[in-house]
Amino acid sequence: MTNDCRPRLRSNHILKYADDTTVVDLIRDNNEAAYREEVRHLVDWCRGNNLILNVKKTKEIIIDFRKSRPTHTPLLINDSAVEVVSSTKFLGVHITDNLSWSPHIFSLMKKGQQRLHFLSRMKRASLPPPILQTFYRGTIESPLTSYISIWSGSCRASDWKSLQRVLRTGEKITGAPLPCIKNITDRRSPDPHRPQPPQPWTVFPPGVRQKVPQHLLQKDQTTEQFLPPGHHTLNAT
């Protein structure tokens, strides 16, 4: 369990997903003391929990838009310098040090074009259009629109055209109109004027639990909510 692996300072953030851990820090006035102390704390935590950090796979990316950047002192982990990169892949999203989404869009377009080949082979096999559309929606449209609410706001016009070419090719193969990618963006992007539904649960910090009242977990209500109707019919017979 990594629940006790938390940042020591408020300016730092630790993002954990499976076996990947990312340390994010906002550095002000060229003072990297808090950032480097957080990394040392993470290394000590891993050592105390019998975990080994792979320094060769550890990368550091610096996002700095100043014209004159100061000299960066290498970050050391176990006496080994961490490689500084200009782009990295975080949970399937390509992030660059200039926050350009063109590499990410190119990766999406390349993946979509590769899967269009399988879609055209399915059409040559005389599969019906509904199956072709289902294949497109599940294997091409889904990755094209993943994290779209993040990168769509600062995407270049040339990148949109690249994605639209994949869409038009899919329409030619399936023989039916497909949802426009920009319309999907508008549908998924949060609208500040749209009323949000009430949230029945409150997000608590790590280590804090809440006891659910028993009257909210009645047996009949829970069973009808989580079990499909076919389950009740089978039990009744």
Descriptive keywords:
237 residues, two-stranded parallel ribbon, 8 helices
Task: Give a description of the structure.
By secondary structure, the chain is of the alpha+beta class. Among the domains are: 12-85, no CATH class; 102-188, no CATH class. Helix content is 43%, strand content 12%. It is built from eight helices and eight strands, in the order E-E-H-E-E-E-E-E-E-H-H-H-H-H-H-H. It has helices spanning 33-48, 102-124, 129-144, 148-151, 157-174, 181-188, 219-226, 229-236, and strands spanning 12-17, 20-25, 59-60, 76-77, 80-81, 83-84, 87-90, 93-96. The strands form four sheets. It has a two-stranded antiparallel ribbon. Strands 3-6 form a two-stranded parallel sheet. It has a two-stranded antiparallel sheet with strand order 4-5. Helix 2 (102-124) packs antiparallel against helix 3, helix 2 runs parallel beside helix 5 and helix 3 (129-144) packs antiparallel against helix 5 (157-174). The longest helix has 23 residues, at 102-124. It is elongated and about 60 Å long. The two termini are 44 Å apart.
